Automatic annotation (TrEMBL):
This is Pirin-related protein. Residues 279-298 are annotated as: Disordered. Fe cation binds at H57, H59, H101, E103. Binds 1 Fe cation per subunit. Residues 287-298 have a biased composition (Pro residues). Belongs to the pirin family. It comes from Caulobacter vibrioides OR37. Keywords: Iron, Metal-binding. PANTHER family: PIRIN, PIRIN-RELATED. It comes from the Bacteria. The keyword Iron applies. The keyword Metal-binding applies. Residues 17-122 form the Pirin N-terminal domain.
C-alpha cells in the first residue's frame, strides 16, 4: 500500500524555515504536483525584517496554490491582483505564459504572530502551458467544501474528492485535501486517482501498520483504499491526481520544453517579464553561475 516514505528537507530562509517536500529524488511528482513546501511553523515579533518577504519573481507553465493554517500573506502580481490570504483560504495563481508576483508578510510585520502553511506548484497540461495568466482567491464552504464528524474536520482545497468539487479552476484531474484528526480518529482515502500521497504537517498517524511522523510524506500504490488512524491530534494534507507527462523544472519555471525554460530565463534577465510598479522593491535575480543539474523527467 505504501510505496515510499520520505522527510521534508528543511531550508533556513533567515527569518523562518521552509520544508521542501516535493520534488524528492526518488519521486519528482505526484499527479500534477511538482513542488510542495511547508512554510513554518514560525513565530514573528512585530516589526521583523522585510528580508522575510518574497520579492517579485516570475513563473511559467504552472499554477501555484497557497493555503494557510496560521498567519497571513499579502499577494501582488503582474495581472493587477492584490489579495490578503488568511487561514483556511486559497490563493490560486495560474502563471501560464508568464506572471510575476510577490508575497509579503505585511500583517504579521504590523501585529506579530505565527506563520504556518503550505504552498504547492501544480504543473499545467501541455495544451494549457501558454494560457493567459490569472489569479483567483477562494474561501468558505461554497468554494472549498467542508465536512466535520467522527473526530475529523476535512476541507477540499482543490479538485474533486469524496464526492465533492472545489470551486478552484484546475486544469487536470487532481485532489488536494486538508484533514484535522483527533487522537484515535480513523479516515480513509479512496482509490480514486492513480497517484496519491499524504503529508503529515503535524502530529502522528498510522497507515498500513506503519507510523508516519510530522513532516513525513507517504506515497501510495494505486488501486487500494488507504486507512489512516491518528495516534495523536494530527494535520494531514492529501494530494495527487492523474499524471500529465514529464516536466523540466529550473528555478521558478516548469515546462514540458527545455527550450521554453531557456526563453523564460532570457525574458526575465532582459526585463521583459518585470513590471516596475509591482512592488517598491528589487526583483529577485536569476541565480548566478551554472544552473544546478536538471531533475530527471518523471
Amino acid at each position: 500500500m505504501i510505496d515510499l516514505v520520505f522527510d521534508a528537507r528543511r531550508h533556513n530562509l533567515g527569518n523562518f524555515e521552509v520544508g521542501r517536500v516535493l520534488p524528492f529524488h526518488a519521486r519528482r511528482m505526484v499527479g500534477p504536483f511538482t513542488f510542495l513546501d511547508h512554510m513554518g511553523p514560525a513565530a514573528f515579533d512585530p516589526g521583523f525584517a522585510k528580508s522575510a518577504d518574497v520579492r517579485p519573481h516570475p513563473h511559467i507553465g504552472l499554477s501555484t496554490l497557497t493555503y494557510l493554517f496560521q498567519g497571513e500573506i499579502t499577494h501582488r502580481d503582474s495581472v493587477g491582483s492584490l489579495a490578503v490570504i488568511k487561514p483556511s483560504e486559497v490563493n490560486w495563481m495560474t502563471a501560464g505564459s508568464g506572471i510575476t508576483h510577490s508575497e509579503r508578510f505585511e500583517g504579521l510585520r504590523e501585529h506579530g504572530g505565527r506563520m504556518d502553511g503550505m504552498q504547492a506548484w501544480i504543473a499545467l497540461p501541455q495544451e494549457y502551458e501558454e494560457i493567459a495568466p490569472s489569479f483567483t482567491h477562494h474561501e468558505g464552504p461554497t468554494d472549498l467544501p467542508y465536512y466535520e464528524g467522527g473526530g475529523m474536520k476535512a476541507r477540499l482545497i482543490a479538485g474533486e474528492a469524496f464526492g465533492a468539487k472545489a470551486n478552484v479552476p484546475v486544469f487536470s484531474p487532481l485532489f488536494y485535501v486538508h484533514w484535522e484528526l483527533e487522537a484515535g480518529a480513523t479516515a480513509a482515502l479512496p482509490a480514486e486517482y492513480s497517484e496519491r500521497a499524504a503529508y503529515v504537517a503535524s502530529g502522528r498517524v498510522e497507515v498500513d501498520h506503519r507510523a508516519l511522523n510530522a513532516t513525513q510524506m507517504a506515497v501510495f500504490a494505486p488501486g487500494e483504499t488507504v486507512v489512516f488512524k491518528a495516534l495523536e491530534p494530527s494535520t494531514v494534507m492529501l494530494l495527487g491526481g492523474e499524471p500529465i507527462g514529464p516536466r523540466f523544472i529550473e528555478w521558478n519555471f516548469v515546462s514540458s520544453s527545455k527550450d521554453r525554460i531557456e526563453q523564460a530565463k532570457a525574458d526575465w534577465k532582459a526585463g521583459r517579464m518585470k513590471l516596475p510598479d509591482l512592488d517598491h522593491d528589487e526583483f529577485i535575480p536569476l541565480p548566478e553561475g551554472p544552473p544546478p543539474p536538471a531533475p530527471p523527467m518523471s
